[in-house]
Model the fold of this input.
Amino acid sequence: MATYRAPVDDMMFLFEKLRDNSHYNSLEKYKEVSPDLAKDILEQAAKLTENLILPLAKVGDETPAKLENGIVRTPPGYKEAYKKFVDDGWVSLSCDPEYGGQGMPKTISSFFDEMLSAASLSFKLYSELSIGAYNCIFHHGNDSIKKKFLPNMVKGTWSGTMCLTEPVCGTDLGLLKTKAIEQKDGTYKLTGQKIFITSGDQDLTENIIHLVLARTLDAPEGTKGISLFLVPKIKVKEDGSLGQRNGVSTNSIESKMGIKGSATCVLNFDESIGHMIGPKNKGLSSMFTMMNLERIVVGVQGLGISEIAYQNALNYSKERKQGKSHNSKTKNGADLIIDHADIRRSLLNMKSIIEGERALSFWLAQQTEVSLYHNDSKIKQQASDLVSLMTPVVKSLFSDMGMEITSEAMQIFGGYGYTRDQGIEQLYRDNRITPIYEGTNSVQAIDLVFRKLVNKNGNIIDNYIQLIKQDIEKNKKINETKLFAEKLNQYLKILIDFTDWIEKSIKNSKDDVSAACNDYLKVLGLVAVGYSWLKILDISYKEIKNNKKFFEDKIETAKFFFDRVLPRIETHYKSGISGSKNIMNFKFD
Amino acid sequence: MATYRAPVDDMMFLFEKLRDNSHYNSLEKYKEVSPDLAKDILEQAAKLTENLILPLAKVGDETPAKLENGIVRTPPGYKEAYKKFVDDGWVSLSCDPEYGGQGMPKTISSFFDEMLSAASLSFKLYSELSIGAYNCIFHHGNDSIKKKFLPNMVKGTWSGTMCLTEPVCGTDLGLLKTKAIEQKDGTYKLTGQKIFITSGDQDLTENIIHLVLARTLDAPEGTKGISLFLVPKIKVKEDGSLGQRNGVSTNSIESKMGIKGSATCVLNFDESIGHMIGPKNKGLSSMFTMMNLERIVVGVQGLGISEIAYQNALNYSKERKQGKSHNSKTKNGADLIIDHADIRRSLLNMKSIIEGERALSFWLAQQTEVSLYHNDSKIKQQASDLVSLMTPVVKSLFSDMGMEITSEAMQIFGGYGYTRDQGIEQLYRDNRITPIYEGTNSVQAIDLVFRKLVNKNGNIIDNYIQLIKQDIEKNKKINETKLFAEKLNQYLKILIDFTDWIEKSIKNSKDDVSAACNDYLKVLGLVAVGYSWLKILDISYKEIKNNKKFFEDKIETAKFFFDRVLPRIETHYKSGISGSKNIMNFKFD
Done:
């Protein structure tokens, strides 16, 4: 079984030294969230995930969730663990105190998301979508709905789901068919089938609050005719107590490659009673509140799984002996594989990506909080635009890198990595959902190039590039970071050229842009991680006296990233701008 | 379940148009292997793999091989299919007529390897190692051993294995501990444990011939004290009939991520009677005959699995409708996803890699036959050197690309790709062993840079580069292929620079070379595939009038490869030559 130590030190380094967003720091509601409080929470979270959650990963893989007589049974031990999880208040970590939450910012809760993902993604998913549903209801529900449903969701005794996909519509929600017929009392009766519903049913909570996209009878075609409904599994009476079963049933659950502990359900809605959330026909935009936050969390899942894979590969490389290293002092027998240059290269590749991603994710957490809660609407909007720019990048880059890193970890284990005992292959299988769900990574890339670079508020990518330029200029003047800043600047120039190419091509050949979007996303993502490393370097050289080992480690890891990871940008650029004529004209048999 | 159509047309194109090795063409023993014969065999092989073998893939995944009361049971249907497979003579395809084989060259049998791998890698493995063992005995066994064991192995009623790995030794065979004690009659008694033994036991054949590496009592330490032994599961009497059980038993079988239909065994040898094969203490070099041929086959496995993944992704993209393409003519509803630029790019990426690899593999098959059977020892040695150079490249590149391609296929299937019904995720899991077994891809890369570039016969990589240069120079003079030749020449220059860097660095810092070896292997591999495409282009422009659709398709696919795949070389080079000081000095916690 894989082992795990939550990287609290690295998280606290970010929380203490890279909380550098002045707008975030001025948010009144988080004034009292001190490093001491953060540390206390992260240490408790570490205990929970290392001890209680981690063992659930293997159990869930070996004894998947199953459907028995119409009821979904979670794997052995999930119920008991979920009860403790709820009792200790972990579901409510980031929720609003008005509904019983602890009101912690994403600068803390996203670290918790990372830890949970590392320990057991399957277990995490049972509460993750609840938070998504909570966010959606919190931002778009009316007061009576909020009062009726949120407190139990925050407590964790009720959970939530997002019901979007149908058999013929995944990416293209315009095709969805579920019908909602208005009743005299203002409620709706929903009928249709939803598929791939994560935690669509389970035996952990007393009720499940489904958020369902559907069409009213008079709705226009396509995406402009989609409304959002709240459909409880068990109807809730006016006094908040549970009533009768609603018309929602589990048709089947998917047999999947990984995250087997998580129940992925086909749900049948059969004249189930629902409440409309937000304005009619505007369901997609309400759902997107939740989708966007969720997409960032999927990126963080990839990060968490990368971390645990790295830790296990590192540990194994310090135990396994094979072959002589070039500087071997061993007379009889072999050296530890960590003494071999190629293994070290692989480990540093993982480490440099993981720590850079964590810093980028922390930067994004600050922006997200500003985008949700800043008083100045202009500042709020600017942050919101940056968040919406970086959401597809973080989702795709971190989940793809999660595959690279879990794969490299398997290689370090050799033949043992392919067997089920070590837990490494499970990480590889579990992470493989992350480039797919919440919109495949290609869909993210299309979203990025066609909707996120430039919007009604102006040229968002340009604003982001300016931010990076400022840090580059600042660091060019510092002896220690000068060379790093100059190197990043070379790659930033490629990003700028690629962006110009996108902006030009979008007018003449949208297919050129579509064929380039995955490469563009990677270029932007790698520059963003490089930018995060530059921030870390800046701090590291300043603080090196205070913790030599920690900051030397950061500086050397950054060097690796600049030397061996950033050069990928050149290939992506060259490949990306080669056009689509040949691609579009190709005659597939 | 995945569907499969063996790509006989593409294979026949190679067989008819790219059989361009004059030394191969002069081999007396293959004079009668005409295109008509090849086509006949490939069509029969297509029928077999599409109809009989393909359904075994899913069965094997759902009902893995298991150990019952000490006996390995293969999945349902394997026994019946294996019987037909043997009865129809498929095991003997490439074996020598002297022992009952059909004597077909690798220019045909490697296509068959590809088809079998695509249809069911697990099923294939039950006969694949038999051929490996056959090759080893054929080249190193004495006449009496050959006469006693080979005919039944060729027939397929007996199978073979390679027993190298032990719990503490995989890559580093110098550590192996299995003991062989000489008996008065000249046989040996072997005692020890071997792990990860593919088809170590099964219920398909009457006997299993294990080839086992072990140490005699007086053997020197390390790799210089390893001998090779033939150890039958059931002892064979002088008259060739089966006697009593030998001291070989199955301790357990591995629970694996994929290829679940294949039994991967832990074998206990307990005073089992064995016969030494080849000279004492030279067991490794005898085993390497088999290992090297086997490594090429692993590459071909990756190619076969890539092909079936591509076919299924292509089919799905012609059925699934999502979203509007940029040139949509659809009024209501969505377009087929094959109309979207990004999906087309992904499909062409797969196709351009697959067809280039197949051509490279065909080139290598010709060289391999020359290396085994040419009368002129110099020509034979030159071919042998090229084969040994390209063996680690084909093994690693094709198996890694197999992961890229099966992964891209999954992405095209979206959420459905992650469920078990479609068979795509199984291809991804099954292929994941190929970068690991027969020496991990990093071990291949180390082998390449330290042992294969230059050997006692001279500078092998330089000879290979000269071959490519000749084709480039020739094609520079042809209008249609001029631009392709020039582009390939740019990348060849990078290969030359990288090679110079390796040759210099190997003197001063072997760690620099070790840290660069994976990147170097990729550069050499991509250039080699580009070289194969240049050969295809040369033919295609000449032949275009004879089959417009086929050759236009080739030309357009080649364009994609040159525009969008070859640029990866730049990143590998830049990353590769960045040195190892930082990597070697890093203090891992």
About this structure: Chain A touches chain B through 95 residues (CB under 8 Å). Chain A has a mean pLDDT of 97. The longest strand of chain A covers residues 264-277. The radius of gyration of chain A is 24 Å.
